Input
Amino acid sequence: MPRCLVLFLVVGILVLPFWWFERKSPPPPKAADLVGEVHDDSGPVADAIVRIKGTSTYTLTDDQGRFRLSAPLSGARITAAKEGYYIAGALVSDGPITIHLKKLPDGDGDDYTWVDPTPDPASPNNCGNCHKAIHDEWQRSSHATSATNPRFLGMYRGTDWQGQPDVGWNLLKEHPSGADVCASCHAPTQRAIRFDEPKKSDPFHALSKPSGVHCDFCHKIAGPGTGEFGLAQGRFQLKMQFPEAKRPDPHQLFFGPLDDVDRGDDAFSRFQKDSRLCAACHEGVVFGIPVYTTYSEWLESPAGRAGQSCQQCHTTPTGRLTNIAPGHGGIKRDPATLGNHRFFDGNQLDMLRRSLQLDAKATRDPEGINVEIALTARDVGHRIPTGFIDRQVILFVEAYAGDKLVKAERGPLLPDFLGSQEAGRPGRLYAKVLKDGDGVSPAPFWRADPATLRDTRLRPGETDRLAYRFPPGADRIRVRIVHRRFWKTVADEKRWPSDEQLVEEREIKPS
Ligand code: HEC
Ligand code: HEC
Ligand code: HEC
Ligand code: HEC
Ligand code: HEC
Output
């Protein structure tokens, strides 16, 4: 074999692994000081957020729109965002970077067609096609069904579970024009309602799709409305912003909490993480009654005073979402930066269990048994229960001798209107209670006398204490906490399946 060939082979064998290694793992790009400028059509833009896309490294532009970042030399993207502009970006290159920001359109939305969330390959714009995981969470929340929820419709139209008309509470019969009021929060994107044609005046009758509180609605919210929270409601208390209908600009407009989505359709908005976004619908005085007061409860709560937003408790990251649009242009992101769309941390029952702390003890003396109970609401941003006015939390205290219920000799009892099964039993009702003109409770909010409202719900951070005395025959005490969405008498009349959630059940033996 010629010598030079041997040499060639030996050198080849020695060099190959290095060459291979080099190919497999390129050297990490060196970090360098990257400088650049952000401007719009009229000049430099100050205070823009400049970020290495998908990372936590960012800075703000100075008065002259200039920025300096320690960035990898190649491969990275730099994005710039400022409220009122589309997010824009550029690839890192040699030399200074210039990013141009485009002002947001100010379409009035008159011609806007709402995009359906449902995944459907035949409609490529549907949000769920690309945001599958977010869609699936949202679909399990009651936002998805706020216009089709059978209990809501049953109360609104006066039907029962089977759709029989004229059963029990009936809003439309008593307030034919109330439809519009309910639609502003429950069906915020339904087309204008026609009062001149009574059949068509029911926006829930022929729902245009998409219905409910859906993706495109919440992500067209640019800021708060100009009205007063509680009095201006739902879509009327929100500033909505739309892409311009006129061609040729093909761009969508989505407001979101991320400042580095530089596809040309997205705008960074701090309001997405602001409690007032929720307040537009979760605060409402309807027919003179404070039906929804979650936002004002929050303002007064320790959480509200500390600036802990609704989102911090309700859109808490699950830790499982690492890409919001996998396979459709989404990038790998820190799961701690991505919120959940179930709108509960887990589910409501999980949150109820974590936020209600029960302490109970029973002591025996020769003449009887003393039971002491303390119920505390903690780590919650409003009263418990909150939300719809008919929500209740009920604490039952049941003393048994063998399997027989024993009456209490002393201690608070449940009110009569809870129904014959529960009236007068030991326990406490935490709820808003209304009376109608004849003094009857419970009353539908649209028929209630505002002056009769009594609010016994738990306040965040406070403890309710109850003391009972039972006769000596009692040998065990059962304490139960349940959450109900509706008054049992109302739900039974409408033949709704039970919606009761058992938050806690505990048996204590007198010591
Ligand atoms: C009730 C209003 C509301 C609805 C309905 C809603 N979103 Fe959101 N969305 C939010 C809020 C608030 C955030 C910010 C959450 C956070 O960061 O804590 C958010 C965040 C996002 C983000 C940024 C990433 C993240 O998870 O934080 C994406 C993407 C998104 N939403 C898409 C969707 C899609 C798709 C749907 C429908 C399937 C949807 N949203 C429905 C309010 C809503
Ligand atoms: C063709 C795929 C696709 C469709 C359809 C789609 N998106 Fe997105 N969306 C994306 C991608 C890609 C991102 C950016 C992902 C990333 O950077 O990780 C995104 C980001 C977002 C964000 C974050 C914006 C920000 O700055 O925080 C929101 C909000 C959003 N989309 C809402 C929607 C809504 C609402 C719909 C339906 C009306 C929708 N998207 C439909 C692909 C899509
Ligand atoms: C456009 C009005 C609207 C906005 C904005 C809105 N909500 Fe809601 N929300 C509703 C309606 C309506 C329901 C109840 C629908 C039903 O039960 O039929 C609801 C239900 C809920 C529930 C109960 C969910 C369940 O599955 O039972 C939670 C929690 C909630 N919203 C939290 C929020 C938070 C947090 C925000 C702000 C990030 C927010 N909402 C923004 C209208 C809205
Ligand atoms: C400190 C955490 C925390 C904050 C902040 C917070 N919540 Fe809650 N929220 C909870 C817990 C815990 C529950 C479960 C207890 C319950 O259902 O009453 C809950 C329940 C709810 C429910 C369900 C009520 C029902 O019975 O259907 C709604 C709606 C709601 N919150 C809306 C909001 C809104 C709107 C805000 C902001 C104005 C907010 N929350 C702020 C912790 C919080
Ligand atoms: C200010 C916005 C707003 C208006 C106006 C409004 N709602 Fe609601 N509604 C909500 C919110 C938010 C919830 C959910 C609160 C919660 O989860 O406890 C809700 C929940 C309900 C529920 C309970 C649904 C369930 O399955 O638990 C019923 C019933 C209801 N609303 C009826 C009505 C009727 C009837 C009208 C019209 C007269 C109306 N609402 C007007 C915001 C509104």
Remarks:
- The chain has a mean pLDDT of 92.
- The pocket of heme C (ligand 3) is lined by residues 141-143, 145-146, 149, 152, 185-186, 188, 213, 218, 234, 277-278, 280-282, 310-311, 314, 343-344, 348 (CB under 6 Å).
- The radius of gyration is 30 Å.
- Residues 325 and 456 are 45 Å apart (CA to CA).
